[in-house]
Specification:
mainly alpha, 5 strands, elongated
């Protein structure tokens, strides 16, 4: 006998108790009573919700009945059955759902059906999703693309490439469509030569968000992406693409990329300092002893930023050969020695410091450079290393480093995905009397904004993973209290359109890599008195 006899006359607590029992037992004898309560609700939110829960429970245990109701009923019961068939992956529902999708005139109803089919999965519905990739409803298009990614549908590659190419056109590149975002991810999931070559060819897509999605997709792909990126480490590749390819190879950190990167240095694929910096940093991130030769060669470059990138990489690769070479170069004195000592301090290269500390005058010169820093983080890093080294001399040198450096009244936020760039910003800002805060991407930077931290100036890179500089600035400008804070964007971009796009998001000014400490200080001084 049904537990639902006389249900409408029961008390509230009895109704809830009975429905809980029905949902647990999943007895099909209760189906007719539940259907009546579902189609003629009691208008009590709690009870009606429990009716739906109980009905879902019974139908989840009876695939045949769920599919039967799916094909016969209309209105809200059909929607419930559509959802049940998807949630519990009733494969026998696929033909019925396919026919519903083909007959659907309402996009909302079509979306429900496609959602159910996507949960059931399988190749039976592939043609349906493929045909909806150009639907007028963006949500349906996005769902279709996601399903094509799951099914790794190679036939959809031309259509997916079309989304990315259209979003690069003059009248469309300023905004990244969600469909373009998903198209890039789908191409990465399909993973054929054609798909991956196309993704890599869009490393420098005109829209910064698309560039970030491309970078993130390739980085997540890891070693599989390396051969495709290696193809564009070439003297024929444009500067912007070469920089971005080197960045991604560094993020991936696969040693298979090393030969191409080292060739780029040795054979001088580019004399541009920004390109060389990106390549040296990538070699350092990969972090193998094979790359030491190129990193040591980088010490010959006059660019201070390259020296910081090289020292950041060498700090994890110190051996007697590296130490001997550094002693030789620094021992010659002059501007080159000074540049290397400053780079060791700026990069907080404590392992290099330890290797050189016992080298007589060189160790003394290096310790003087550490003591001259105004950065409290630098002092703390080297104080910790000195404590580890131990001895009377190390204790005396520790005493030379103040426990805290009194910061100036001004505060700055610097945002960059490069460890060596952030180190350089800290050095420049502290020497200019600023208290620096650093972040590795826009999302990390915005977390400081959410804590209501106040800054006198913000310096941000343009191209970063997770959240790029333009998205960060756009979000910043929409936050109360941050409409007028000066934002300086640091970039290697050669396209004028990118600066125009950045200005529209709220960037005040730009400084192009490579730059000197004095140039950055002068740029900041234009906006902060």
């Amino acid at each position: 006998m049904s537990m639902l006899i006389g249900f409408r006359e029961k008390s509230f607590l009895d109704k809830i108790s009975i429905l809980n029992e029905v949902a647990t037992a999943k007895d099909p004898v209760e189906l007719d009573g539940l259907l009546d309560l579902f189609q003629n609700p009691l208008e009590d939110t709690s009870v009606d919700y429990m009716v739906v829960t109980a009905l879902n429970g019974i139908l989840s245990a009876d695939e045949q009945k769920a599919v039967e109701l799916l094909s016969k009923e209309e209105g809200k019961l059909r929607i419930l059955c559509i959802r049940v068939c998807g949630e519990f992956q009733f494969k026998s529902a696929v033909p019925v759902l396919m026919q519903m999708a083909e007959d659907a005139a309402d996009p909302d109803f079509l979306f429900e059906v496609l959602t159910s089919l996507s949960k059931i999965g399988g190749a039976d519905s592939l043609e349906l999703f493929r045909s909806n990739i150009n639907n007028d409803d963006d949500l349906i298009v996005v769902m279709s693309i996601e399903m094509l990614a799951e099914l790794k549908d190679e036939q959809s590659i031309p259509a997916l490439k079309g989304f990315v190419e259209r979003n690069n056109e003059d009248d469309r590149y300023e905004v990244c469509d969600l469909t373009t975002w998903k198209a890039v991810e789908c191409l990465a999931a399909i993973g054929t030569d054609e798909a991956l070559d196309f993704i890599v060819s869009n490393l420098h897509h005109r829209n910064p968000t698309v560039r970030r999605v491309v970078t993130d997709s390739l980085t997540v792909m890891g070693s599989r992406a390396v051969p495709y990126l290696n193809k564009i480490i070439s003297p024929d590749t444009a500067k912007d693409d070469l920089i971005l390819a080197a960045n991604v190879l560094g993020f991936i950190g696969d040693k298979e990329a090393l030969d191409g990167l080292m060739d780029a240095i040795e054979k001088q694929y580019s004399t541009d300092s920004s390109v060389k910096y990106a390549i040296y940093e990538a070699i350092g991130r990969i972090g193998t002893m094979k790359g030491v030769i190129s990193l040591i060669d980088g010490l010959e470059d006059d660019d201070e930023l390259i020296a910081v990138a090289v020292m950041t990489g060498l700090d994890g690769l110190v051996n007697p050969g590296v130490t001997k070479k550094l002693v030789e170069i620094v021992g010659q004195g002059g501007s080159k020695a000074g540049k290397i000592l400053r780079a060791i301090v700026t990069a907080k290269a404590v392992n290099v410091f330890q290797a050189l500390y016992a080298e007589g005058k060189i160790g003394r010169f290096l310790m003087n450079a550490v003591a001259a820093s105004k950065d409290a983080e630098v002092h703390e890093a080297f104080r910790t290393k000195l404590a580890e080294i131990g001895g009377a001399e190390a204790e005396a040198d520790m005493a030379r480093l103040p426990e805290a450096v009194v910061a100036g009244g001004k505060k700055a936020l610097a945002v960059d995905d490069s460890k060596s760039m952030l180190a350089l910003y800290r050095s420049i800002l502290t020497s200019g009397g600023y208290e620096p805060t650093v972040a590795e991407n826009g999302q990390d930077a915005y977390s400081h904004i959410e804590l209501s931290k106040e800054f006198d100036v913000i310096i941000t890179d343009m191209n970063m993973p997770v959240m790029d500089g333009m998205e960060f600035v756009s979000k910043l400008r929409q936050t109360n209290g941050y409409a007028d804070i000066p934002v300086i964007m640091v970039t290697t971009e050669s396209e004028y359109s990118q600066q125009e796009l950045a200005r529209k998001t709220g960037v005040n000014d730009f400084i192009t890599k490579p730059f000197t400490a004095d140039q950055l200080k002068a740029k900041i001084a234009e906006y902060v008195s």
